[in-house]
Structure formats: C-alpha cells, structure tokens
Amino acid sequence: MQVTEKKAEGLEREFAVVVSAQEIDGRVDARLEELKGQIKLPGFRPGKIPANLLKQRYGKSVLGEVLEAAVNETSQNLLEERSLRPALQPKIEVTSFDEGKDLEYSMSFEIIPDITPMDFAKLKLEKPVVEVEESEVDEALGRIAAGQKTTQKLKRKRKAREGDVATIDFDGSVDGEKLPGMAGEDFKLELGSGMFIPGFEEQLVGKSIDEDVTVNVTFPEGYGNEKLSGKDAVFEVKVKDIEEAVPAEINDELAEKMGEANLDALKERIREQLKGELDKAARSVMKRELLDKLADEHDFDVPAGMVDQEFETIWRQIEADKAADRLDEEDKKKSDDELKEEYRKIAVRRVRLGLLMSEVGTKNEIEVTQEEVNRALIQEVQNYPGQEQQVFEFYQKNPQAMAALRAPVFEEKVVDFMVDLAKVSEKKMSQDELKVAMGAEDAPADEEKKPAKKKAAPKKKAAPKKKAADAE
Q: Could you say which of 2.60.40.10, 1.10.3120.10, 1.10.10.60, 2.30.110.10 is the CATH number of the domain covering 120-134+257-471?
C-alpha cells in the first residue's frame, strides 16, 4: 500500500492511496481458494478445480467483493498507523481501477481535535439546597384522598356542580336518526370527567334532579364511528339523581390503601418523592453552571461536519416549530439568517461540549454498564403504558436506539466525575428561587435554551412540581 498525504489543514485530512495490482491479484486468488470447495464444475470433484480455470471462470465475480475489502482494510490500517481519529465516517472515492491495474482511491475526513481538559479541581460550583414544605405534603395528601373519593346522596337539594356524579337516562339522534350506542339508562356520569364528548357534561351542570335537558353537541372530526364524525347530535337527557363526591378521609386506612403501614409512612413517602424532584431540579441548575464554565474554559477547533449535522438537526426542529407556530416571541422577530447565525453558534457549543465529555470519559475509563442501560430502558418503556412490549422489542432490535439510551447515562456519569473533583458549596434556596434559577436557562444569553437536545447540551427541566403525582 502506498499512501500520499494530500491535505493536512486544521482538522482536515486527505490521502491518496494506491493498492498494487499484485496485491489485488493475490487477494482474488486467496478468496477463490476459500470458495473452491463450494464451487461445482462438470468433470471436477469439489475442491479439485485447477486454480487457473477457477480464476478464469469466477475471478471477475469476486473482484467487487475483494476491492471493497481492500479499501476497508487499507483505510483502517492507514488510520491506525497514523493514530488518526475521524470525527465522522471518512469519504472514500475510488479514482482508478482496471483489471490487472493498481487500485487508487482518495480518503478525506476531519479528525477529532486534541483536547486538553481543564483541572476540574479548580472548578467552583454551587449546589442549590431546597427543602420540602409541609404544605406540599398536605396538598399531595389531599390529591390522593380526592383520587380515592366516594359518592353520597345530597344532604340537601341543589343543582348539579362539576365533580358531582349524575345518574342519567339519555337518548341521542343525528339528523333525526337514532344510531346504536347513543342511548343509555341509569348511567352514572361524573361531571367534568371528560368521559362524554366535549360539551355534553357542561350542559348538565346547573341542572336539578328530575329535570329534562336537551343537549346539543358536535362529534369531533375523526371520531371512531365514521357515521358520527363531525356530525351535530341532539340528546334528550333525564337527570334522575345527583350524588356529591366525598374525598377519602386522610388517615391510616387511606395509607394502607396506598401500600403504606400508616399515615406517617405515607407522608414520608410523599416527602421523599417531592425531595427527589427538587434535588433533580437543583442538579440541573448546578449542571448548567458546570457546562457554562466548561464552555468558557475550553476553546478548541471543532469538526465542521459535526457542526453541520448538529445544526441541521436543530434547524429541522426550528422549521417544525415555525410551521406549528411554536416559536417563542423573541425568535419570531428574527429573520431566517439571524436565526441560522444564532443556532449555528449553539451547534458549535454543543459539539465542543460533546467532544469534551467524550474525551474526559475515555481518558478516565468511565463506562456505562449493561445494568445501567437496562435501567434506562425500563424507564423509557414505562413512558408508553400499554405498549411496553413493542417499545422493548424496538430497542432490542435497534442498536442506534440503544446507543441513544446509553449516551445520556454516560453524560451523567462524566458530570458526576467532574463534580466530585470540583469544589462544591451548598446554597440554600426557596422553591421560588429555584424556579427563577431554572428559568434563567430561558434567558436570551443562554445558548442552550434552544431545541434539539444532544449529547452534552444541558437539558431544560420543568419547574419542580408541587404535586406528588406518582404517590397517587
């Protein structure tokens, strides 16, 4: 193999490679030798076909396979011998080859830059510390109790309110025609539950027991029954009874229903869940500070091809947001050229941070275990209730999807590594102050406020919830 370096400017590299005709011929002979036991020719026993006849008959048919293998092997050898790390898949172009002549090809690519990570012990970070307020625990208990509510007869006659359960008879029609499924008797309907089509329940609010009501509604477009989709309908409704909802009492019995030994244990579980949410939000603020300081401390060239890919991903999201009128007001005022300039800067920052994270992880032998990937997969699967098996199989069959699960786990481990070395001080905050700190990520100066989250880009988090939804 003969190699000539044609270009070495910045991160760009280009080589001209020549593989001699003699080597190609030898590779063809070797491949035919491997195949001769599988080839059958009349008059010859398997494996006994003369080499010259074998080459005459089948040499051209294996040549394409041999050329591809030769390019792959020689290009890989070139990279290894020169200790080059391509940022993206090299571009290879065969420039010359004829049977019996040398194989000539060019290979061009950008290399991963040399990166010297800063001394992380010099980093100073603030970790927000936010306490759970007892009122939040009480609010969560109230929601749990409401979720375990029962109904009871009205203590005094009154009109129906949202949240009541009305027992109704109903009979509906479309264009005067009564269709299957549009009638029912003694149906218990919670007003405000959204169980019936939009507008139905609202028209029963304010009605009394034994009152007859004519309800006019329109079935939504795309409704499951094509005969009803988009159609106006009239329902004659009889309100037969009204019951009011009664939240469960907040006591040990409620706690036992929720799987806890007593009310104190349930409160502690809620408190831990709320604290976990606050700690997660606080970590995102500290991580944001970390990444900002890393960006300030590292300024190395980044491969243009990687920036282009990142920018294209961001810009596709921007165009989708424009089409759906989801752009923020600030961006709506800017021209496409202004937006592209801004987002390209974001792409550069993301690529630089991603390369830095990768370098730190590699140099310090930070690895993601299969157990950690499995945990990430389980969490992802749980986001799709009812489709768990399909989602699980999708990830099992798609290595790229599994790699996408592994990447954020790797990033968090690298962040942990840096934080462990940094000087971290605690800063007590109220929840309102934490929300303000998180909201600062949306400030115009913040390059990571934009879409298309990638490897090392800080992810915008939601404000800490004041609800223990997962305790319900």
A: 1.10.3120.10
Rounded Cα distance between 211 and 206, Å, is 10
How far apart are the two ends of the chain, measured CA to CA in Å? 68
Q: Is the dihedral of CA 25, 27, 30, 31 positive or negative?
A: negative
| Percent of the chain scoring above 70 in pLDDT | 87
Residue 54 and residue 81 in contact, taking contact as beta carbons nearer than 8 Å: no
% residues pLDDT > 90 (the chain) = 65
CB 94, CB 71: distance < 8 Å: yes
Q: Which residues contact 71 (CB under 8 A, 6 or more apart)?
A: 19, 92, 94, 103, 105
Exposed e or buried b for every residue in 88-116, given b needs 16+ CB within 10 A? eebeeeeeebeeeeebebbbebbbbbeee
Residue 394 structure tokens: 């999708």
Q: What's the CA gap between 291 and 458, in Å, rounded? A: 7
- Rounded CA-CA distance 441/459 in Å is 9
Q: What is the pLDDT of residue 226?
A: 78
Q: Distance between CA atoms of 185 and 451, rounded to whole angstroms? A: 51
Please determine, looking at this structure, whether the domain spanning 2-110 carries the CATH number 3.30.465.10: no
CATH 3.40.50.1360 applies to domain 150-246: no
**Per-residue pLDDT at 471:** 30
How far is the C-alpha of 225 from the C-alpha of 234, rounded, in Å? Answer: 16
Q: What is the pLDDT of residues 214-254, one digit of tens each?
A: 999 999 887 877 778 888 999 999 999 999 988 888 999 99
Q: Return the pLDDT at 106.
A: 96
Q: Which residues of the chain register pLDDT less than 50?
A: 441-472
